Structure formats: structure tokens, C-alpha cells
Amino acid sequence: MNQLRINSAGERSLLLMGGTMDDIRGLLPQKGLFIITDTNVSRLWGHLFPPGEVLVIEAGEKSKTLETAGDLCRKMLLAGADRSSFILGFGGGVVCDVAGLTASLFMRGVRHAFVSTSLLSQVDASIGGKTGVNLGDYKNIIGTFRHPEFVLCDYSMLSTLPETEFRSGLGEVFKHAAIRDRNLFFDLAAGSESLATRDPGAMGDIILRAVKIKAAIVRRDPLEHGVRKVLNFGHTFGHVLETQYSLPHGIAVAQGMILAAELSVWKGEMQHSELRILKSALEKAGLLPELLLPSNIVPRIARDKKGESGSVNFVLLRSVGRAVIRRLSLTEIQGFVNFFIDRENLSQ
User: Fold this and answer.
1) Pairing of strands 33-38, 86-91
2) Most Cβ neighbours (<10 Å): which of 40, 120, 189, 248?
3) What would the pLDDT profile of 318-332 be if each residue is shown by its tens digit?
4) Which CATH class is domain 163-347?
5) Which fold has domain 2-160?
6) Is 90 in contact with 35 (CB distance < 8 Å)?
């Protein structure tokens, strides 16, 4: 097991990479434990739950709402929870977001931690202290920053992931590499066969390297005022595609990465050869289903939480492994979208 720490904004978070449930027994309270999980995780891993009150939400994105968090707060109150209670989010990305938000809201904040069961949550959703739920079609509009006391990433739990969810997690791993670590990116591209078998050794190395990238960025910018924004690479386009086509998050992000890379070339930030490298690797990993770009994508981007006064902080690439943040007007983005759609129509 490898231990990483994120100490920032007055909070401390311990990341237990490659650990097991035995490693967290001493980190949990003797009483007042509330376990928030979903229907799938409860069925698969419920036998590992420590003693406590179990609150189960429906699996999937439909549970990622303020209403779900409010319902959990109500159930906790009825079960006798108080400010000394402790929430353990046991599940994937949706569970971590909902449990983290609930912990930050209930009685103005109670202690919490995560047991992360999906690849997406082990490399991204459970790390860094962001919580968030959706407002209609708009992703993560309601949320807080609150670090979990610890995050347990048991790689053996990835064995039960459906193939689509596993590939969704790979999308976020590729994103981490694309913004900060060219060597990791090429290792991912070259090791796709061993990753597809979910070999624990290969997966453990890749996950640890990806988490180190995110942890280093979060330490520098815990509240996303500056450099942390690079972690949004692929998300501005990706969030629209995710809701438009009901895509798994990481697959939508992979599509968004390609669009952001196309925009990078269009803006003169990156050479086309780098775009080909990115696209080839993501295609080989099975992350790029054929989709049409929605014609109303720019108005939807305008209401994204990254938008401000007619412009958007956009993460572009200078090359694979080197991201930059540029403030682009909605007019510029619309110009690119028009160019991209016209080009695609001509090629058909």
C-alpha cells in the first residue's frame, strides 16, 4: 500500500492507495457511523461494510441531485445523527459526490471519508475535496469544497466494474496524463492490453501515477482559483455530450478532450501531429464512439459553472502532457464549432 497526503486549505486528507478494509478499521469511529452507498455497491460489497447505519441510494447519475442529499440528511436526523457523526461514502463517483456534499451540509459539516470502488472515483471523484450534484442537465452546479479525512482505494474492487464503467475511468486517467505527464500517456497507450485485463500490478501503477498528478495540483490550488482548472480538460465540451447522449462521464470527457485538442489546433496552440497522437490512443482504448456535435452546444457551455461574463476558462493543449488555460469568448467558441461542424459535413 502507498500513502499520499493532501494538506491544504486547513484540511488534511490521507490517500490509501492499494489498501484494504483492514487498513481503515482504526480510522473509523466506534459509534455514530453512517455508510452512504448505492444499490449496486451494496449488493456487491455489502459484506465488507463496517458496523453502522447503512443508507442506500439508487445507482446512477439520476441520484446526483440536491434532493438526494436532502433526503439523506433527513434520514440521518431521524436515525439520531448529530455533529459527532461520521459519514463513510462507499462507492463510485456518484456516491462520493453525494456523500461528500451531504457531509458538508448536515449540521454545517460532519466528518467523512470514502471507500472508492470504481476506477473513475479512485483517480478523480474521491480525490481533491470537490463535491457536487447536478441541476437538471447542468453538471455539478451545486457543490462545496470539503476534503475527506481519508480515501481507501482497493484495486481488487475494480474487478466487478462493468466494462463501460471501467473504460469511463480510463478516460479520466488519460486526461490526467494528457495535461501533465507525457510519459504516463504513452505508457497508457502502450499498455492497453494489460489494462484491459485489469491486471492489479499494471492498474496499481497507473492509478498511483494518475493520483499523484491530481494530488500535486490540488495541493497548489485547493479551491480552483488557478492551476487546478487544468483538471477540467475535456469537461467543458464533455459535460454537454454527457447529458446529450447519456454517456458515462469518462467517455464523454474523452470526446471532450478531442474537441478541446481540435480547438487547440484551430487556435494555433498545438501542432496537428499532437492531436493525431491523442486521438489514436483514445480510439485504441475504445473511448471514442461516433457522435454528432450538438448545434446548441455553445449556449449550453455559456451556462457551465466555468463561464463568466460571456467567456469561458478553457483548457487547451500545447502538446500531449502540457496543458494551458485560456480565456475564450463565446463568439470564438462558436466560430470553432461552426468550423468543426462544416468540416465534418464536408467529409461525409
Assistant:
1) parallel
2) 120
3) 999 999 999 999 999
4) mainly alpha
5) Rossmann fold (3.40.50)
6) yes
